[in-house]
Amino acid sequence: MAGYLGSYATLGLLLLASVVVFVGAFSANRLLRPASPAEPIGKRETYECGVDPVGGDWAQAQIRYYVYAYLYVLFAVEAVFLFPWAVIFDRPGFGATTVVEMAIFVAVLALGILYAWRKRILTWT
Amino acid sequence: MEDLSLPKIDYAAVAPMLILFGVACVGVLFEGVLPKAARRVTQLVLALLGLVAALSVIVWQSDTRVLTAGGAVAIDGPTLFLQGAIIVLGIMALLLIGDRAMEHGGAFVAQAAITVGSEADRKQAVKEQGATEVYPLTVFAIAGMLLFVAANDLLTMFVALEVFSLPLYLLCALARRRRLLSQEAALKYFLLGAYASAFFLFGVALVYGFAGGVEFGTIHDSVTESTQSTVLLYAGLAMIAIGLLFKAAAAPFHVWTPDVYQGAPTPITGLMAACTKVAAFGGLLRVLYVGFDGVAWDYTPILGVVAVLTMLIGAVLAVTQTDIKRLLAYSSIANAGYLLVGVLALSKDGLSSTMFYLVAYGFTVIAAFGVVTLVRDADGEATHLSRWAGLGRRSPLYAGIFTFILLAFAGIPLTSGFIAKFAVFGAALDSGEAWLVVFGVVTSMLLAFPYLRVVVMMWLSEPGESTPTVSIPGGLTAAALVIGVVATLVLGVAPAPLLDLTTSAADFVR
Amino acid sequence: MRPVIPYVTAALLFGLGVYGVLRRRNAVLVLMSVELMLNAVNLILITADTTVRAALPQTGQVFALFVIVIAAAEVGVGLAIVLQLYRLRATVAVDDVPLEKVDA
């Protein structure tokens, strides 16, 4: 395993360790627990306490969550372009042009948020 | 890592794209800050001014032959010609998009989020003005197309592909009438488009693995010099071709075309039929002529089969259509086949004749969809063919215009369609692709049948109770119609200037 | 040394995506399958970056950034279209939406 797959050995060890821990914990559990547990009434119900579950499992979320989540994802993802830029912008030969270019990029993003704000998507009522 | 340097950008050469992206951003800004009443006129004027400005820069730059932005963008003869064509056709489509004379509020829905059939929807269908976001979206799409035909590496090409596709997906969903059909068209177009672009991207990754770069120059060098296995190259080229042929609506990647053309708002259908076709074939030409010309012998037979299949499917299925927009969609598929014949000539003549065909077809098809927007009844456009029976008696002028357009599609002499077909078939014959020409001529004759059926129906049937009226077009639609019809006629009678232009422009830089 | 494992994983991911697009009738799942295909491409780009003799260093990694961003934009547009159609169909259970035309 010294060759090409060697770097995967650590990963393999980790997986192996996790399997051992998992199996060990459950085996210990099985060995240590009482053989015939009590069966009080209602133990096999979905919930032993609190309100009874009613209705289906489908819940409709507000459409606003979608817009918020989407705005977040877009801005988070567009930010990846900032990192390569941050590495090189202060090198000789880059300078003002690079800063201006990134300013334009951020301005276009800001235009998007301005549009969303003017369309009253950001108000939560 | 240390040898990074800032790429030089020839700002004058890329100015048309910068202008259009800037105009689209300003359009978004206007959408946010202007009062509702002022938006439509401002947006329309802004978009038109932007397109005209970009066109004049292209004319001014017409002698530029340069690779710029670190080799990512090539401004050369074909680029400038195709960019000019996209802008001119885009102006015509924008005129159709902007017209609100035929229908109160225009062809677009005011609030796409309102549920179809609800009380609010009925209210907005009759009262509200159409959404003005369509103008910035259209300009974004056109700007993306300009970048697409100029892209000199596969990654830029992919970015441009998405930039022009995403606005088109949205525009498809914005029809005022028959909104469910429009939504379904948008969903179908989007899912299949995303699927095709994923294939394109996979091809890009494979070619990158083969050539060590995605610039067409690098690819060209590796194709001719590389000694390693060519599996990656062929697989990559095949997948890139799938992505491009999907946009060009070539068989067997054409299945979206009829549904999307039918469901989308008619002005947007015109934009897609004309401008997207120019962009897609512009990209295909550059990929095949500049990047992969070293393996031309290998891909010609396969793409030849695709071309034959496209022509046959388009022509045969056009015969069975009963809806005018679907008929035009199948005709556009068949035309993609004829364009492929020109592309596969793989010569300077092939390049110039394909570019001529794209322009000639674009003018005609926008005019055709312009006429479709005029034939209406109380429910909007009457697109079923049976409704067009007897239209010649009702409105001889527009029936005459449409007859002329259909004859141009059929390739009758004295129209641009004849010259364009003659040019691509001639180029293919010179390159020894006679089998493609045989299929081209046969399917052309086959395709003339559905066109002539519509003509006969319009002129020789009595107008019935259900024959719709032909609206008086607004000034904008009328302008687009006049431009389209005059261009179709002029290119048919005196094609020499444009043919000379395409010939002088038919030279890629690498 | 050829990095076989990442390439095979990428090929499997891409195949899974293709299968998903062709088999799934649910528009959201089709969209997710397309994303799977794009991620396979990212894996290939980054793997190829380490092996090919590229003219510029690290180009493959930069390509992956572009692909990620464009995938996000695509999802935004796609989800908007899908959500709108569901609202228009007046149903929220996506399995009930007849999408016969979608799975081409």
UniProtKB/TrEMBL annotation, chain A:
It catalyses: a quinone + NADH + 5 H(+)(in) = a quinol + NAD(+) + 4 H(+)(out). Signal peptide: none annotated. It is a multi-pass membrane protein. It comes from the Bacteria. Keywords: Membrane, NAD, Quinone, Transmembrane, Transmembrane helix, Transport. The chain crosses the membrane at residues 6-26, 67-88, 94-117. It is found in: Cell membrane; Membrane. The keyword Membrane applies. It is an enzyme of class 7 (translocase). Its EC number is 7.1.1.-. InterPro entries: NADH_UbQ/plastoQ_OxRdtase_su3, NDAH_ubi_oxred_su3_sf. NDH-1 shuttles electrons from NADH, via FMN and iron-sulfur (Fe-S) centers, to quinones in the respiratory chain. Belongs to the complex I subunit 3 family. This is NADH-quinone oxidoreductase subunit. It comes from Phytohabitans aurantiacus. The lineage of its organism: Bacteria, Bacillati, Actinomycetota, Actinomycetes, Micromonosporales.
TrEMBL record, chain B:
Its EC number is 7.1.1.-. The keyword Transferase does not apply. Its main location: membrane. It is a multi-pass membrane protein. Residues 151-446 form the NADH:quinone oxidoreductase/Mrp antiporter transmembrane domain. It is an enzyme of class 7 (translocase). It catalyses: a quinone + NADH + 5 H(+)(in) = a quinol + NAD(+) + 4 H(+)(out). InterPro entries: NADH-Q_OxRdtase_suN/2, ND/Mrp_TM. Signal peptide: none annotated. The chain crosses the membrane at residues 12-34, 41-60, 80-98, 134-151, 157-175, 187-211, 231-256, 268-289, 301-320, 327-348, 354-375, 396-414, 434-460, 472-494. It comes from the Bacteria. It holds the Pfam family Proton_antipo_M. Keywords: Cell membrane, Membrane, NAD, Quinone, Translocase, Transmembrane, Transmembrane helix, Transport. It is found in: Cell membrane; Endomembrane system; Membrane. NCBIfam families: NDH_I_N (TIGR01770), PRK05777.1-4 (NF004441). NDH-1 shuttles electrons from NADH, via FMN and iron-sulfur (Fe-S) centers, to quinones in the respiratory chain. The immediate electron acceptor for the enzyme in this species is believed to be a menaquinone. Couples the redox reaction to proton translocation (for every two electrons transferred, four hydrogen ions are translocated across the cytoplasmic membrane), and thus conserves the redox energy in a proton gradient. Belongs to the complex I subunit 2 family. NDH-1 is composed of 14 different subunits. Subunits NuoA, H, J, K, L, M, N constitute the membrane sector of the complex. This is NADH-quinone oxidoreductase subunit N. It comes from Phytohabitans aurantiacus.
TrEMBL record, chain C:
It catalyses: a quinone + NADH + 5 H(+)(in) = a quinol + NAD(+) + 4 H(+)(out). Its EC number is 7.1.1.-. It is found in: Cell membrane; Membrane. InterPro entries: NADH_UbQ_OxRdtase_chain4L/K, NUOK/Mnh_C1-like. It is a multi-pass membrane protein. Belongs to the complex I subunit 4L family. Keywords: Cell membrane, Membrane, NAD, Quinone, Translocase, Transmembrane, Transmembrane helix, Transport. The lineage of its organism: Bacteria, Bacillati, Actinomycetota, Actinomycetes, Micromonosporales. NCBIfam families: PRK05715.1-2. This is NADH-quinone oxidoreductase subunit K. The chain crosses the membrane at residues 6-22, 29-48, 60-83. It comes from Phytohabitans aurantiacus. NDH-1 shuttles electrons from NADH, via FMN and iron-sulfur (Fe-S) centers, to quinones in the respiratory chain. The immediate electron acceptor for the enzyme in this species is believed to be a menaquinone. Couples the redox reaction to proton translocation (for every two electrons transferred, four hydrogen ions are translocated across the cytoplasmic membrane), and thus conserves the redox energy in a proton gradient. It comes from the Bacteria. The keyword ATP-binding does not apply. NDH-1 is composed of 14 different subunits. Subunits NuoA, H, J, K, L, M, N constitute the membrane sector of the complex. It is an enzyme of class 7 (translocase). Pfam families: Oxidored_q2. The gene is nuoK1.
